[in-house]
Amino acid sequence: MRIPTLAMTALLALAAASTAHAHAFLDHAEPRVGSTTPTAPKEVVLFFSQNIEPAFSEVEVSDAKGARVDQGKPNVSATTMRIGLKPLPPGTYRVRWHVLSVDTHSTEGNFTFQVGK
Known about the structure:
Radius of gyration: 19 Å
Number of strands: 8
Strand order of the largest sheet: 1-3-6-5
Oligomer: single chain
Order of helices and strands: HEEEEEEEE
Helix content: 10-25%
Distance between the termini: 68 Å
Strand content: 35-45%
Shape: elongated
């Protein structure tokens, strides 16, 4: 009886430890982080490692001068956040994001992508 109790205690401790350190990290994005696309994308799509809270998650896309080129509020569904873009001329664009995961941990980050050759 003692071995199953110890095994269950160890399993619960391991599960609690992995849950306590979970955050919604950026898994990948379209356009890809640091990439160059020959044509302008119509949207930026961010894929996270965990479900995110729509009310507390945001993304902004700006041009090299800092002017916003996104179309406002993002659409969030489970682990994916997407935002439409205005027509983009060739240049470098910065994506800044901030998300709150369903486990109440927040993460943020940014990356750039280029349009044109």
